[in-house]
Amino acid sequence: MEQLDVLKRELRPGAVYRRADLQLWSKAVDRHLQELVKDGTLEKLSGGLYYVPARSTFGKVPAEEHELVEAFLKDSHFLITSPNDYNALGVGTTQLYNTRFVYNHKRHGEFKLGNRTFQFVRKPNVPNKLTSEFLLVDLVNNLKRLAEDQSVVLERVKEKARTMDQERLRKMADRFGKVRTRKLFNSLLTK
Predict the structure, then answer these.
(1) Is-contact 190 158, C-beta < 8 A?
(2) Cα–Cα distance between 106 and 116 in angstroms, integer?
């Protein structure tokens, strides 16, 4: 059996691969990658990053965001968020943004992966999951970037903070808040 056929057999629809991952099944990986991109088996997302398109009744399905970022970073410890997530807090944010932030330990800057752009932000601490307490802290960290009236949002943040789990919110502010954010929550939260 030809190496290209072996490589094709190993690919699973919807998966994201790094070039190095595919070297396991091919001794001429660059030539095979070119052939697979040309025949539509693979899509090149960025340098060294490839996607095997999954198909639905509506056509090609884009790569799953989490798997895409995990393959790019070669790490699973990151958090993807957006300023749109703040809207669920009920503090007066209503704008829609076309920005996805990836908090991680490795990369910093804007990267285009396929047809999506991500703003990678290197942080010393990254939470394991997105919680309302983390979102509230992150909102205050990024308040100056938002299009809404900052003073109105800040007043509503103060009201919201009083209704949340005080201890969890304090921990989130201490671990993930900027200096100004930590000061704000320390002044709001009861000891």
Answers:
(1) no
(2) 19
Question: What single letter denotes the amino acid at residue 92?
Answer: G
* CA pair distance 185, 179, nearest whole angstrom: 10
- In this predicted model, what pLDDT tens digit does every residue of 120-171 receive, in sequence order? 999 988 998 999 999 999 999 999 999 999 999 999 999 999 999 999 999 9
Are the C-beta atoms of residues 16 and 50 closer than 8 Å to each other? yes
The residue type found at 37 is V
Secondary structure class of 179 (helix, strand, coil): helix
Domain coordinates in residue numbering, the chain: 3-63, 66-188
The single residue listed with the structure tokens 């070297």 is 23
Instruction: At 185, give phi and psi (nearest 5°).
Output: -70, -35
Q: Torsion angle of alpha carbons 93, 97, 100, 104, nearest 10°?
A: -40
Q: Which CA distances in Å does 188 have to 40, 105, 168, 176, 185?
A: 56, 30, 13, 17, 5
